[in-house]
Amino acid sequence: MNRSPIRLSLLALALAAAPALVAQESSGAIVGTVKDKSGNVLAGAEIRLTSPALQGTRSLRSDEGGGFRAPLLPPGAYTILVVKEGFVAPKSTLQVGLGQTVRTELIMASVKAAESTVEVIATAASVDKSDAKSSTNITSEFMDLIPRTTRGMDTVALLAPGVTVNNALGGRVQIRGGQTTQNRFLLNGTDIADNVFGNTNGRQYYVDDSVSETQVIQSPVNPRYGNFTGGIINAITRTGSNEFSFIFRANLSRNAWSATSPLGPFQPGTGQSRGNVGVGVLEDGLNRSYSLWLGGPIVKDRLWFALSTKLDPSAYTPQNFNTITGLNTGDTQRPANPPNPASIPPGPGFGTGPGESGGPFTRTDSPKFYELKLTFAINANHTLELAGNKSELPQVNRFYVNTIDPNTLVPQTNDNEYRTLSYKGVIGNNLTIEARYSYKHQLLSAGGDPAKGDPIRARYSNGVYYIFQNGIFDKTDGGDNRNIDTWTMHVQWFSPKTSWGTHILEGGFELLNQDRQAANAQSPTGRQFFVWGRNADGTYRAAGKAEGVIGNFDYGKNAFDLNFVGLYIVDKGTANTKTSSYYVSDTWSLNDHWQLLLGGRYDKVESSDTLGSTTISSNRFSPRVQLTHDLKGDQSWITRLSFARYVGKLNDSFTNLFTLAGNPITEFFGWRGSRNDSLTYAEATNLNNWEVSAAGFQGQTGPKSRTVDPSTKAPYVDEWSLGGRHTWNDGSFLAMTFTTRKWKGFFNDFLRIGGEMEIPLRYIPGTQDVVEGHWGTDDSLTRDYKSFEIEFSNRLSSRWTFAGNYTYAILRGNGEGSEGNNPSVAGDPINNYASVHETRGRDLSYYAPDGYLTGDQRHRARFHLDYLNRTSAGAVYTASVLFNYDGGGNYSLTRGLSFEAPTDAAATPGANPDLYPSSYTRFYGPRGLGRFNDTFNFDLKVGADVPLWSKLRFFAEVTVFNVFNHWQLATYSTLNGTGTTLLTSDPNAGYNATGRTSTSGNNTGFGTYGNGSYVGGRSVVLSTGFKW
Amino acid sequence: MSLVSRLTSRTALLLCLGTALSAQDAMTFQFKMGGGPLSGQVRKVTGDAGYSFSGTFELNQKLSSESALVYGLGYRAFPGDFQNLSFIPNPRPNQPVGLYTYESRVRKGEASGFHLSAMYRKDMFMEGMYLQGGLVLGFYKSTTTDTGTRLTVNVTTANTSGTVTKTETINSRVNETATSLGLTGGLGFRFNDRYTLELNLIQSSLEGVIGKKSGIAAEVAFGVRF
Fold first, then answer.
1. How far is the CA of B122 from the CAs of A61, A696, B129, B185, in angstroms?
2. ipTM, two decimals
3. Cis peptide before A19, with omega less than 30 degrees from 0?
4. Are strands A28-36 and A101-110 parallel, antiparallel or unpaired?
5. Neighbour-count burial for A600-614, b at 16+ CB within 10 Å, e otherwise
6. What pLDDT shows up at residue A736?
7. pTM
8. Do B11 and A724 count as a contact with CB atoms less than 8 A apart?
9. Of A701, A770, A805, A904, which one has the greatest count of Cβ atoms within 10 A?
10. Does any CB of chain A come closer than 8 Å to the CB of residue B71?
């Protein structure tokens, strides 16, 4: 009998979740044992590994126990040939995934036996239990198959269990309950996350077809990983090979291919909106994007290249200037008091032509993208890799602030690039070394041209300032640069096998240096003029000090206060956040059944700027422990229990709060003269006409108003995880994991008042300068996550696979955290002015209750049935149906109420009441009381990849999202009020509504919905091209 | 003990149990995932969302070459859909003198819980096909959340719209638990030693704010045998 070695399909291993060995960021490994048919180990056998992904042949010998280990292998399909005198074995093939250690057993037959009957059996490969992380690997072959058309890191990650978005209808990626700002995004080992937002979809740095494999690491227990409290998304790009190859792809779609949203059953009297018209009815342009990837050898088995580019045409996007409405004076003459609209004719700038209210203009985007990867093998054991990209997105006519003046549209450029150089070396049988330097650069540069003069902002009678003459920001100030340098080194040592088992000792460091250089000039000339109004002839108006309170749109203000000049003090210094991490671990395999990982990581974070200030210096130690039990000693039944602490990173959105670098100080000064109704532009922007002195000083903004406790430490999360996994011989598996996470040490700002003040409010007479926020660590903020995940892959036959995952999760807490799901840092109300609430009988349940956080999603599932047929003629036909189930997000019943803090501040010596918040959010019931509907739908993709000539192939994929056009009501309005005037802040008084009549409108709007509340419309994308 | 903790402890127990039992020919262990539509009054508890899904561990005790007893422990979720129970008209109708209450109320009912089952399974009709039937004991907890606004209007002059004198926020959450014994049965097909596909009907009861309601949960389930 001649039985071929069992081969694992690419698909099966593509979905192989979890248990893989030592955390490798850009490689995998093969371990195994060589035996004869009787089960006796064979020492001294030569194992030769070849792969299209490997330069040359990796050769090694089995040790005395028949074991062998091939670390630092580029992910890909490997052919294994075993050679030993007197024995024969056929070649076997297996797939090595990113970060996985694949275990295989190679069975050799004696030559004599083989002469009579060639019976050579190789057992199936399985992911080795010594992997100390929970992860999901998703290959490019898998992405070719399933109904997805782009390969952003977020799109790919959302196919894995434990990954959600922070909003049920879309948002940023959240891994096992972590904040969306606390994931790591690695591309070829390079941290490409935005310094401020802490996230990216990655597609600014690669072409979709360039991605070889993406690893979603939900729980990387191995201490090699750190600087996150969510998870890690780790992608690598394709390398060249000894054969030339290319992929040219075009993605095409039309709006008409998308279904139009239904309104749903109309409910009279509910105020149901008909405002959303859905898509596909206004424009029907062909949406196109093209890309080209090519790779091959420069020197065979020595030097390979991979190049890619995007060939997207320039995009011309119709835009409109502001439509000016709500005027009650016409703004063609000085506002009357009281206003008399009937007497005021409309002036210029209120038509519909270019440069007028609501007038059209076109924004132009002209993207350019290039990517390169070079792989150089000194020999099969030592490899150097250089990778990087350059991406530019110049835009013309960027619209930033309210305007009807074409002169104020500004150019913008978005640049994204990275470089990485890495070395991987296998030294002897027991030692490996990896080292990497990488650099990521982001630049956002936009702004007006200094030569065009000062921007001037004229206030209209609807209370809105409109900008004229020049745009905001300064296009010559160098832009906003967000850079990350990373140095890493990782060393592994594999101990010989003894009666005490084996050890894998690992150690290394990761040095992260986040730089942010952003002058952030707010004006191309260093100043902006805010004037009281603009006349029909283009002249401007300024109000004098004698002007009194005017219309109700100027509530609490007078005309004089509303014209001022802002002068900007810009510092081009660099803010720097430096993280130094060191780690060590031991993976101790006591025997075939038990394994223990013990490790620890030390992270030190220092935040400073080039102006000499150090704002934060934090350090924490994080232990990592994992106990693994292999029931049968063959990886088929694995049970794991782990504890890990993950220390979060400090994003620039937080650390930059406390530095002048990139945060200009603005000083405001008032108008010097008396009322003037016809100022020319030159007069309005003549600084001599403004009172730039202490007498005219109106205030300032900037980082001087924030402080931080120098002992502030990075937040962390403690995680317990218990999981079981069964793997069958054909690679099918079923895994279940329970995880609980508890976050500690969030940042928060402590705003206090009166007797509870920790720091004095610095009121400087005449300057209105006050300490707005004092930041530090706040253990009273909670965030708890529990989940139960099921992941499976079943090979139904050689062509059919059924796979997927389901996650049941609960995310609770009493605040979103200071770096919550919103990228901008905002403190939670806990500990802010608590005395103001307490003295009025309100506790935390009133203004900061516990409950479900916005990222809570109870059920989430992705199941897919896949068909893959490789014909004898070389054609590949595929089909895949993906079932998406998304639990509804939650909402809270809240309302903004007036706050007594300014009143209390008025009674506090030295405090300026105007600078205290005048409102707070009240919760009715617990946080996340209500929950929107769950939704589900099916996506379909069919594909054909057929040979044309020689190695030239044609492929076409049709992806139909929401194939059944199953529209579902996903959300509805949660507006819960009839107007704030109904309310008082008295907790016990109910909501007295004296004087409220029906003419004020009593339709709450709560529970109403429109087209925009539905999801599930069908849309179609055609992806086609050629491969070589 | 939270739901997740209970789920976990049971899963761990069953995994261990399954591991041990899978080595015995007379006993096999299976994990089954399924979902499908609801029929009957039970739909009303979850706002006519009209479907449920479940995951079940099953222990199969062989009685003969063609028959077996199947014991199951599973978790079933009945997701709910939004119901707009009432709205506040705009403008409000004219009324005689008096106090009136208007509500804008949204309800969301959902349920989930564990079930135990015991079924007799018999191979018949064709190779791989089997029929099964038995009893199911469900412990389902439903949660009904009402949110919205309530206005109190004082009409002092007949046929005027009156004055709003009070507004209140509706924010109630009611939990009810129902235990019920019902019938279950279905048709299954065994593709091979590992995979099965079943069509089952499960008699289910839920207790909501509208009272106890019963119905049938139909489901297509995919099973994997260890």
1. 54, 93, 9, 11
2. 0.89
3. no
4. parallel
5. ebbbebbbbbbeeee
6. 94
7. 0.87
8. yes
9. A805
10. no
